[in-house]
Amino acid sequence: MGVAAVIGAAAAGGASALGATALVAAGAGAVAAATTAQYKQGQEAQKIQKAGLEQQRVVQQQQVQMAETQQATAQQNINRANQKRPDTQAVLADTQAAAGGGAAGTMLTGPQGVDPQQLALGKNTLLGG
Protein backbone atom coordinates (compact mmCIF):
# COMPACT_ATOMS: atom_id res chain seq x y z
CA MET A 1 0.00 0.00 0.00
CA GLY A 2 1.48 3.37 -1.04
CA VAL A 3 1.73 6.50 1.09
CA ALA A 4 -1.14 8.20 -0.77
CA ALA A 5 -3.40 5.19 -0.19
CA VAL A 6 -2.62 5.24 3.52
CA ILE A 7 -3.47 8.95 3.75
CA GLY A 8 -6.67 8.42 1.77
CA ALA A 9 -7.76 5.56 3.99
CA ALA A 10 -7.12 7.62 7.10
CA ALA A 11 -9.14 10.56 5.77
CA ALA A 12 -12.04 8.35 4.70
CA GLY A 13 -12.24 6.70 8.09
CA GLY A 14 -12.62 10.06 9.77
CA ALA A 15 -9.29 9.87 11.56
CA SER A 16 -7.98 12.99 13.16
CA ALA A 17 -5.10 15.04 11.78
CA LEU A 18 -2.85 13.52 14.41
CA GLY A 19 -3.73 10.00 13.24
CA ALA A 20 -3.09 10.99 9.64
CA THR A 21 0.29 12.41 10.58
CA ALA A 22 1.16 9.19 12.36
CA LEU A 23 0.18 7.22 9.32
CA VAL A 24 2.30 9.45 7.06
CA ALA A 25 5.25 9.05 9.43
CA ALA A 26 4.78 5.28 9.40
CA GLY A 27 4.66 5.33 5.62
CA ALA A 28 7.78 7.46 5.45
CA GLY A 29 9.53 5.03 7.81
CA ALA A 30 8.57 2.15 5.54
CA VAL A 31 9.96 4.03 2.53
CA ALA A 32 13.19 4.76 4.43
CA ALA A 33 13.50 1.09 5.40
CA ALA A 34 12.94 0.04 1.79
CA THR A 35 15.52 2.58 0.59
CA THR A 36 18.03 1.32 3.14
CA ALA A 37 17.44 -2.27 2.03
CA GLN A 38 17.93 -1.27 -1.61
CA TYR A 39 21.13 0.57 -0.72
CA LYS A 40 22.48 -2.49 1.09
CA GLN A 41 21.54 -4.71 -1.85
CA GLY A 42 23.31 -2.31 -4.19
CA GLN A 43 26.43 -2.35 -2.03
CA GLU A 44 26.40 -6.15 -1.94
CA ALA A 45 25.95 -6.31 -5.72
CA GLN A 46 28.87 -3.91 -6.13
CA LYS A 47 31.09 -6.12 -3.93
CA ILE A 48 30.12 -9.17 -5.97
CA GLN A 49 30.85 -7.30 -9.21
CA LYS A 50 34.27 -6.19 -7.95
CA ALA A 51 35.12 -9.75 -6.92
CA GLY A 52 34.06 -10.99 -10.36
CA LEU A 53 36.19 -8.38 -12.12
CA GLU A 54 39.20 -9.26 -9.99
CA GLN A 55 38.75 -12.94 -10.77
CA GLN A 56 38.45 -12.11 -14.48
CA ARG A 57 41.68 -10.03 -14.30
CA VAL A 58 43.56 -12.89 -12.65
CA VAL A 59 42.35 -15.42 -15.24
CA GLN A 60 43.26 -13.07 -18.09
CA GLN A 61 46.74 -12.55 -16.63
CA GLN A 62 47.21 -16.32 -16.39
CA GLN A 63 46.13 -16.71 -20.01
CA VAL A 64 48.60 -14.06 -21.16
CA GLN A 65 51.38 -15.77 -19.22
CA MET A 66 50.45 -19.15 -20.70
CA ALA A 67 50.42 -17.67 -24.22
CA GLU A 68 53.89 -16.17 -23.68
CA THR A 69 55.18 -19.54 -22.47
CA GLN A 70 53.70 -21.29 -25.49
CA GLN A 71 55.22 -18.70 -27.81
CA ALA A 72 58.67 -19.17 -26.25
CA THR A 73 58.37 -22.95 -26.54
CA ALA A 74 57.31 -22.69 -30.17
CA GLN A 75 60.26 -20.38 -30.93
CA GLN A 76 62.66 -22.83 -29.26
CA ASN A 77 61.23 -25.68 -31.32
CA ILE A 78 61.64 -23.66 -34.52
CA ASN A 79 65.22 -22.79 -33.59
CA ARG A 80 65.95 -26.42 -32.79
CA ALA A 81 64.55 -27.52 -36.16
CA ASN A 82 66.52 -24.86 -38.07
CA GLN A 83 69.87 -25.28 -36.37
CA LYS A 84 72.90 -24.20 -38.37
CA ARG A 85 75.32 -27.05 -38.86
CA PRO A 86 78.99 -26.68 -39.81
CA ASP A 87 80.02 -27.64 -43.34
CA THR A 88 82.36 -30.42 -42.31
CA GLN A 89 83.16 -31.36 -45.91
CA ALA A 90 84.47 -27.86 -46.66
CA VAL A 91 86.52 -27.78 -43.42
CA LEU A 92 88.04 -31.17 -44.23
CA ALA A 93 88.87 -30.10 -47.80
CA ASP A 94 90.55 -26.89 -46.55
CA THR A 95 92.58 -28.84 -44.00
CA GLN A 96 93.77 -31.34 -46.61
CA ALA A 97 94.73 -28.53 -48.99
CA ALA A 98 96.72 -26.77 -46.26
CA ALA A 99 98.48 -30.00 -45.34
CA GLY A 100 99.78 -30.24 -48.89
CA GLY A 101 102.17 -27.34 -48.16
CA GLY A 102 104.12 -29.38 -45.62
CA ALA A 103 104.24 -29.60 -41.85
CA ALA A 104 105.90 -26.20 -41.33
CA GLY A 105 103.68 -24.31 -43.73
CA THR A 106 101.35 -21.68 -42.36
CA MET A 107 99.74 -18.65 -43.89
CA LEU A 108 102.44 -16.46 -42.33
CA THR A 109 105.61 -18.49 -43.04
CA GLY A 110 104.80 -20.45 -46.17
CA PRO A 111 105.90 -24.03 -46.83
CA GLN A 112 109.60 -23.41 -45.98
CA GLY A 113 108.87 -22.48 -42.33
CA VAL A 114 110.89 -19.95 -40.29
CA ASP A 115 114.67 -19.51 -40.66
CA PRO A 116 116.25 -20.13 -37.23
CA GLN A 117 118.77 -17.27 -37.86
CA GLN A 118 115.89 -14.79 -37.98
CA LEU A 119 114.86 -15.84 -34.50
CA ALA A 120 118.17 -14.78 -32.93
CA LEU A 121 118.15 -11.26 -31.52
CA GLY A 122 121.84 -10.70 -32.23
CA LYS A 123 122.79 -9.92 -28.65
CA ASN A 124 123.62 -12.06 -25.72
CA THR A 125 120.73 -11.15 -23.45
CA LEU A 126 118.30 -13.06 -21.36
CA LEU A 127 115.83 -12.88 -24.22
CA GLY A 128 118.29 -13.61 -27.03
CA GLY A 129 119.98 -16.66 -25.63
Describe the structure.
This protein is mainly α and 129 residues long. 71% of the residues lie in helices and 0% in strands. It has four helices and no strands. Helix 1 (3-12) runs antiparallel to helix 2. The mean pLDDT is 77.
- The rounded Rg comes to 49 Å
Helix and strand string, N-terminal first? HHHH
Distance between the termini: 124 Å
Mean pLDDT: 77
Instruction: Catalogue the unreliable spans.
Output: none
Global structural class = mainly alpha
Helical percentage = over 70%
Major sheet details: none
Question: Which descriptor suits the 3D outline?
Answer: rod-shaped
Number of helices: 4
Q: Got a strand count?
A: 0
Q: Hey, roughly how much beta strand do the residues contain?
A: under 5%
Describe how the helices and strands are arranged.
Elements: H1 3-12, H2 17-81, H3 88-99, H4 116-119
Helix pairs in contact: 1-2
List keywords for this structure.
129 residues, mainly alpha, 71% helix, rod-shaped
What would a concise description of this structure say?
Helices cover 71% and strands 0% of the residues.
